[in-house]
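Entry 14. Ran structure prediction on the chain below.
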Amino acid sequence: MRNSTRSGVDPFIVMDVMEAARKAEEAGRHIIHMEVGQPGTGAPKGATEALAHAMQQGPLGYTVALGLPALRQRIAQMYGDWYNVDLSSERVVITPGSSGGFLLAFTALFDSGDRVGIGAPGYPSYRQILKALGLVPVDLPTAPENRLQPVPSDFAGLDLQGLMVASPANPTGTMLNRAAMGALIDAAYEQGASFISDEIYHGLEYEAKAVTALELTDECYVINSFSKYFSMTGWRVGWMVVPEDQVRVVERIAQNMFICAPHASQVAALAAMECTDELQANLDVYRRNRALMLDGLPKAGFTNIAPPDGAFYVYADVSDLTNDSRAFAADILDKAGVAVTPGLDFDPTRGHTTLRFSYARATADIQEGLARLQAFMSERGALVRQG
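Output, structure tokens:
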């Protein structure tokens, strides 16, 4: 059968790494997973208990397209608690994960052929979803001196219709401070470009609180998710905050694309927002893991890393070690039993010399993974010296 040109998206390489790791495990090997951005924990206990109770009360059918009113109200309250932002719940839209949010945002804001700037390195699905919708992703190569985040000069004169930023970012974990975020918003507006802020790693910060774009402007789209801080990846529930005059636009699209986000997941998400102690305990694990990574990776030989302000990733420049990050990652999996992600997922131009390490799993796994990486790199160095 004929395929559309829009369907020619690239594979998500980390999913290929996961499959290679699965096959190794199927063959009896013990693999340490540093490839995927998935918490090692499940949904908070209060979330699963609330869903079990709701299921006993009756069937869980469709909700309205914008989501359960109680969940929208609780999210709006969170913006007051976390950021001192007075947000109307009418502007909150519940989505089938952040991926559903990207589809809704891109569909609502852009016409076929529109150009949308995205930082490189950056989350690969931005690029592929834009392509699949007939839009043009414009990679903005970021610089180490800018913490691998875009700055206004990166897109000056590029005739963008949209700008997407992420803070904390995947794959780097770097964040935008208030001044940097404000400069990007102002520069986007000067070009007439819509501003979208991916904030799905908010809550996972270690030294300073992440800045939401909503602290600076109401004229933006903010996308978030219950996958990361709330540890609910497989539940596929997230949210958007949009300007008041955009709510009905997004609602009409959501009605037709999705009908609604999963009712069961919305029930669990509402309860998860009250599980502060458990969520903070998870964050404490990531904080310990981050410290281990910042100590252990340089000892293994991965010395050129981005400052991981948030999320649960370390992004390493390995240009002194390889010119083929995909082959290097495959070698690490084969010889060390550690799954890591080649940077080609995140930066098609420069990713052949970078790797991403995730520290979202249990601390014991991180310790074992670092020990394996140090042994692998030591042996590799010895072989190189032998020539």
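The longest strand covers residues 115-120. Will compare against last week's run tomorrow.
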